[in-house]
Amino acid sequence: MAVVIRLKRMGSHKRPFYRMVATDSRSRRDGRFIEELGFYNPITVPHKLEVNKDNLLKWLRSGAQMSDTVKGLVKPLGILKEFHEEKVEKMKKAKA
């Protein structure tokens, strides 16, 4: 099962609200998901983004892939950089 982290659209007509979820890549966009990782509200000014950092890192460590949209939203938070540094450190330990 390939796990992907993507946005699940919610809200009413012309009032979108998104939940960041870990889901099987074969499931529908708004279908079943494994775990909710946060939310994104593009309507509010400024945009509101809340992410459960620990759970997101847990899924990334286990091999989950992020959609391009999620990657763009999470990048300014520094979570990707932290994950990359952790991965590099792990590789250094393996070489030694």
Q: What is the topological layout?
A:
Layout: E1 3-12, E2 15-24, E3 35-41, E4 48-51, H1 53-61, E5 65-66, H2 68-74, H3 79-95
Parallel strand pairs: 1-5
Antiparallel strand pairs: 1-2, 2-3, 3-4
Q: Top keywords for this entry?
A:
alpha+beta, five-stranded mixed beta sheet, 3 helices, single chain, 96 residues
Explain briefly what this protein structure is.
34% of the residues lie in helices and 34% in strands. By secondary structure, it is an alpha+beta fold. The longest helix is centred in the last third of the chain and has 17 residues, at 79-95.
Verbal overview:
With 96 residues, the chain is an alpha+beta fold. The chain has 3 helices and 5 strands. The protein has a 5-stranded mixed β-sheet with strand order 4-3-2-1-5. A hairpin with a 2-residue loop joins β1 and β2. The mean pLDDT is 92.
Placed side by side, the strands forming the largest sheet appear as 4-3-2-1-5
Number of helices: 3
Count of individual beta strands: 5
- Judged by helices, strands and strand pairing, the structural class is alpha+beta
Element-level helix/strand string: EEEEHEHH
Q: What separation lies between the terminal Cα atoms?
A: 33 Å
What is the mean predicted local confidence, pLDDT?
92
Question: Radius of gyration, Cα only, in angstroms?
Answer: 15 Å
